[in-house]
From TrEMBL:
Its EC number is 5.3.1.23. The keyword Nucleus does not apply. InterPro entries: IF-2B-related, IF-M1Pi, IF_2B-like_C, Initiation_fac_2B_a/b/d, M1Pi_N, NagB/RpiA_transferase-like. HAMAP family: Salvage_MtnA. The record marks 160 as: Transition state stabilizer. This is Methylthioribose-1-phosphate isomerase. The active site is at 240 (proton donor). The gene is mtnA. Belongs to the EIF-2B alpha/beta/delta subunits family. MtnA subfamily. Residues 339-361 have a biased composition (Basic and acidic residues). Pfam families: IF-2B (PF01008).
Length: 361
């Protein structure tokens, strides 16, 4: 019988408000923030109070609920028009994770079915809750599909945080690691600290330690030596946007890991729900890469670690070509050695739009 591990859920809807666990201050402080206006939700996504592609999508869906409430109060029967600027501000919060645009578009589709004479909030809230629950369910399914790929006593490396905190609960890459641990297949997890924002040391280490999953934190630059030592089986990561040929954008440093893994014969698993696939783009070169504040690199917790006015580059993501990926695990199934043709098996009803979702926002 499958043991169901309960994990933290970083997004809650309670008392007609959205509540987010503030990921900027973890692991030292567990602070929940309440949101009742959509612009504050857009700002929270931008500032990474909430982060991780699926979590951003779920949060944006609730942001649309709040925006619709505001539009109904301010514009009555013209609420649909009044809603559009707020949706644009939500969509402008972060550019790379496609789940954001997917969730806003799905909420907009619900808007299109509603009467202009009635408050849209109940129907939109129901839709946002559905998106929320579907993500938890997808994570559980992916967890098992991914764990089934692992041999007994596997030693794995993960990068960034693709855990419960990055989703509605359970996690994508960490969902596989959690399920693998439950199934007795995980011997040890190496966690990259993930400079510059330190999602690995602050968030992934916190999640794994809470559950007693054996882990070691390491500097990102230690990955090559770990692989050369010969005791690593899989690199397991999440994704922010997957192109229709399987090229995958994920946290900066993932590409370097995949190149190292290829050289050392270590396998690479990408775990992401189908809401992370952008069928409208052919390959990874079309994925917009977010540039974040220079201070994320030149400072740590407000303390300068570089000369004043140093020139900094801070791309938040990189693209790993499909040829370096051994398996893409989704809730619709696993694609081994992904290619444009093989990715098609994951397609259900998605339309093959020519414009990318983010272009349409
Ligand atoms: C399930 S999360 C997958 C990705 O979103 C994750 O690996 C990642 O890159 C998150 O980046 P972040 O900048 O912290 O939002």
């Amino acid at each position: 019988m499958t043991r169901l591990l309960q994990t933290i859920e970083p997004i809650l809807w309670r008392d007609e408000q959205l509540h987010l666990l503030d990921q900027r201050v973890l692991p030292h402080t567990e602070n929940w923030l309440a949101f009742y206006d959509s612009d504050a939700v857009a700002e929270a996504i931008k500032l990474m109070v909430v982060r991780g592609a699926p979590a951003i999508g779920v949060t944006a869906a609730y942001g649309v609920v709040l925006a619709a409430r505001e539009a109904w109060f301010s514009a009555g029967e013209n609420w649909q028009e009044a809603l559009i600027p707020a949706l644009k501000r939500l969509a402008a919060s972060r550019p790379t994770a496609v789940n954001l645009f997917w969730a806003i578009e799905r909420m907009q589709q619900t808007c299109n079915t509603l009467s202009k004479y009635e408050s849209p909030e109940p129907a939109l809230l129901e839709q946002a809750k559905r998106i929320h629950q579907e993500d938890v369910k997808a994570n559980r399914t992916m967890g098992q599909y991914g764990a089934d790929l692992l041999d007994n006593d596997s030693i794995v490396l993960t990068h960034c945080n693709a855990g419960a905190l990055a989703t509605a609960g359970f996690g994508t890459a960490l969902g596989v690691i959690r399920q693998g641990f439950i199934d007795g297949k995980i011997e040890h997890v190496y966690v990259d600290e993930t400079r510059p924002w330190l999602q690995g040391s602050r968030l992934t280490a916190w999640e794994l330690m809470q559950e007693g999953i054996p882990m070691t934190l390491q500097a990102d630059v230690a990955a090559g030596a770990l692989m050369a030592g010969g005791r690593l089986d899989w690199v397991i990561v999440g994704a922010d946007r997957i192109a229709s040929n399987g090229d995958t954008a994920n946290k900066i440093g993932t590409y370097s890991l995949a190149v190292l893994a290829k050289y050392h014969g270590v396998k690479v698993m990408v775990v992401a729900p189908t809401t992370t696939i952008d069928w409208s783009i052919e390959n990874g070169s079309q994925i917009p890469i977010e540039q974040r504040a220079h201070s994320e690199v030149s400072e740590i917790e407000g303390h300068a670690i570089a000369p004043a006015k140093v020139h900094v580059s801070n791309p938040a993501f990189d693209v790993t070509p499909a040829a370096l990926i051994d398996a893409i695990v989704t809730e619709e199934g696993v694609v081994s050695s992904p290619s444009k043709e093989k990715m098609q098996q994951l397609k259900k009803e998605e339309k093959n739009d020519t414009n990318s979702i983010s272009d349409r926002m």
